[in-house]
Amino acid sequence: MKIVKWAARLLPFIYMALIWIMSSLPSNHFVELPDSTLDRTIKESLHFVEFAILYGLFVIAFLTLKKKFTVQVNLILAAAASLYGLTDEIHQSFYPYRSASLFDLFKDVTGVLAVYYFVDGAMFKGKFSRLKELLGKWRDWMREGTA
């Protein structure tokens, strides 16, 4: 159980390192689809997905701690994921084959806000009962063992 707990705590930071590395490389480094419009559309939509995942990983990691998950904590986690999006955009501006844009940052933050909506609704507003149950089970399972 301790291994799972620590893996969950480290996962957001490993994921952040992967984002950092991938944003240092040309966009076609891993794959380039034959249809350039489709390729660009998919890659642009990944901004939304990758930062939604990052925020979700922050939530999962926090729930392994013996601390109360509050509205304020939730906002801090969302802000941290969003600020990492800003950091990543600035980072990309230093590479000639990458670009930084406010629209990309908007997509990053929108991804965070999409997941935030569900987590906030589940944990604090009585919505999304299955998500609340799932997050509660995860938290309880992680808190059974020692820190």
What would your notes on this structure say?
Helices cover 74% and strands 0% of the residues. It has one domain. With 147 residues, it is mainly α. The chain contains 5 helices and no strands. The mean pLDDT is 89.
Which key terms come to mind for this protein?
147 residues, mainly alpha, single chain, 5 helices, 74% helix
Largest sheet: none
Helix run count: 5
**What is the average of the pLDDT values?**
89
Order of helices and strands: HHHHH
Q: Would you identify the regions where 5 or more consecutive residues have pLDDT less than 50?
A: none
Helices and strands in order, then pairings?
Elements (H helix, E strand, L loop, with lengths): L1 H21 L13 H27 L8 H22 L9 H23 L4 H16 L3
Helix pairs in contact: 1-2, 2-3, 2-4, 3-4, 4-5
Quick recap:
This protein has 147 residues and is mainly α. It contains 5 helices and no strands. α4 crosses α5 (129-144).
